[in-house]
TrEMBL record:
Keyword terms of this UniProt record: Amino-acid transport, Cell membrane, Membrane, Transmembrane, Transmembrane helix, Transport
Database matches in Gene3D superfamilies: MetI-like
Family that this chain belongs to: Belongs to the binding-protein-dependent transport system permease family. HisMQ subfamily.
Name of this chain's protein: Amino acid ABC transporter permease
Location of this chain's protein in the cell: Cell inner membrane; Cell membrane
Classification via PROSITE patterns: ABC_TM1 (PS50928)
Native source species: Paracraurococcus lichenis
Alphabetical list of SUPFAM superfamilies matching this protein: MetI-like
Domain ABC transmembrane type-1: start-end pairs: 27-215
Superkingdom of origin: Bacteria
Length: 227
């Protein structure tokens, strides 16, 4: 009897079939959020890392403050401020754009620190050698220093990217119909928690390969340090 109750409440197939189009739409929005915010966050973080490496003292201090600010700022609070506070300043963004902006700003701090530390770990002699070959500083950074830095930061970059994809779920708080929001709406329609269980399974199927890749990169990085 208990097993039958569990199935009826958490794995009710008729309820899942009924709301599947809604869940599929939510999964698509989650994927779109991730595909837009991820490269923008990486680009912003890379720009911050390069700015810290090549900029003057004032620029480095400003960028370090940026990193500290957005790493300390909760993503949900940032999203709510962008969605509900900016209109008072005359700027109203669609919920999708607001969610992307919140994800990019929040993760630019994490990506920026990862790139900054990675670039700083490359011996300064590499830049001097590139300068001796006639490469300007930015070109030397992109062609000589950055490829070496990436070897040591692939694992944390992948790990933070995983967190970014999971962070898309906060968009449910501003009624963006991503996967979690769609599952909650589906639950209200069916009076059954099965849609939430289905959403959890979809998150797992979406993120497990990524988590497995992160674990492999971390093990490879540890083996490289042990040599």
């Amino acid at each position: 009897m208990m097993w039958q109750d569990l199935v009826e409440n958490f794995a009710d197939w008729p309820s899942l079939v009924k709301v599947w189009p809604l869940l599929a739409q939510g999964l698509l929005v989650t994927a779109e959020l991730s595909l837009v915010a991820l490269p923008l966050g990486l680009a912003a973080g890379l720009a911050i890392g390069i700015g810290c490496a090549l900029g003057g003292r004032a620029l480095r201090i400003a960028l370090l403050c940026w990193i500290d600010l957005f790493r300390a700022f909760p993503l949900l609070v940032l999203l709510i401020l962008i969605t509900y506070a900016l209109p008072f300043l005359g700027l109203t963004l669609p919920t999708f754009a607001a969610a992307v902006l919140a994800l990019v700003l929040n993760n630019s701090g994490y990506y920026g620190e990862i790139f900054r530390a990675g670039l700083a770990s490359v011996p300064h002699g590499q830049r001097e050698a590139a300068a001796a070959l006639g490469l300007p500083p930015l070109k030397a950074m992109l062609l000589v220093v950055l490829p070496q830095a990436l070897r040591g930061v692939l694992a944390p970059l992948a790990s933070n990217s995983l967190e970014l994809v999971k962070g898309t779920s906060v968009a449910a708080m501003v009624s963006l119909p991503e996967l979690l929001r769609s599952a909650r709406v589906a639950q209200e329609q069916t009076y059954n928690p099965t849609p939430l269980m289905a959403a959890a399974a979809l998150y797992f199927l979406l993120l497990w390969p990524f988590a497995h890749l992160v674990a492999r990169l971390e093990r490879r990085m540890l083996r490289g340090r042990a040599r």
